Amino acid sequence: MKYQRPRGTNDLTPDRSPLWRRLRHVYEEVVTQFGYAEVDPPIFEATELFARAVGEDTDVVSKEMYSFTDRKGRSLSLRPEGTAGVVRMVIENGLLGGGGILRLAYWGPMFRYDRPQAGRYRQFHQFGVEALGEGGPALDAELIELLVATLRAAGLGELRVDLGSVGDRCCRPAYVERLREALTGMDDRLCPTCRERRVTNPLRVFDCKETGCHEALKHAPRMLDHLCDDCRAHLERVEALLADQAIPFRRDRDMVRGLDYYTRTVFEVHDPGLGAQSALGGGGRYDHLVEDCGGPPTPAVGFSAGIERLLGVVEQEGALAASERRSYGAYLSLMTPAAEPHAARIAARLRRAIPVEVDFTGRSLKAQLKTANQRGVRFAIILGPDEIDARSATLKDLDSGVQKTLPESDLLELIQAWLASEPPAPRAAPGR
Ligand code: AMP
Known about the structure:
15 helices; BirA Bifunctional Protein, domain 2; alpha+beta; binds adenosine monophosphate; elongated; Rossmann fold
């Protein structure tokens, strides 16, 4: 019997984990710089929460949720996105009402039962932020700036910001009526699902991937042309603020965001080199969601970005890779099992300053040094019978080839001196 990972999932293997951790670090740095505190809601919640928050007729809820009944008969679902859980957490823990803006960030796995393809998985990871308690356009611009700053810090050069507006409770109902009318005349071109959506939630027709439905929409009215004055002014202010920050953007009249909760600003950031699944992240304003979920009226805005997609781009562009070399670490080579206590003592001391990996395999020194080189560490520390007797160690700088036998208690000092001396000394002493 050969086990395989479930379809649409990924293993994070050791070759990719350094880059993954670098991305996590970039995320932590940038959200901290912008004043966002990290939160971590559970990965499953009551199914009802997602149905309510994300929308019953969205694809994400109606087709893509991993839902199950627990042993007490409750319906729970693995989270398909992060906002609903954060909003639930904020209400349940009474985090609102302190005045000011509540700025929160998260990072973790999401689950959607969709057809897997490049850049689309059933378990994937997102980082995201939510900013609650302020309805003005400046906060929308801040979030877009934060997303762009994170992607740039991850080494991405070319980015495209698409910006749109889905209107608000003042202008959207009238627009939806117009759209419904327009779609009524095209009923024969719509797929059966969209014929239903035309009645229940015509905006969702924009989500449909069927060519007939795409064609039908070509001449349908667009929300951007039917915004009320407030929504238009809001959008124009966001644009002006982005222009001020020299963030290039374009208006997208066809932007589809697959979740129901958005109001006014919606946005996506794309990597133009990525092909079909080019969106790295997206989000928007959701001014009624907190209230709809049982909290006080609270305007808010958020986004999420896909970490696997980001990792893919970073790998292609090689932007972060070099800096992850553990160039300051050490590889401890034991020439005899008798060196084990000796090695444990040295490793414990050195680990306060540098990463240390210990080789207990008893292989030849040549084989052990080969592994040390593969690991990309700067130092090998060799412990043979002579070193055990003398309580010493042989330190080898794998960059320069220089090596020196010295008392074990002086090791750290010499390592630090060699690390501080740049560039490394030329390859001199012969190998052992
Ligand atoms: P969404 O929550 O659908 O707005 O998605 C936000 C971002 O998450 C997207 O721009 C993608 O980068 C990423 N994403 C969404 N769905 C998936 C998926 N099934 N697999 C991998 N990444 C995804």
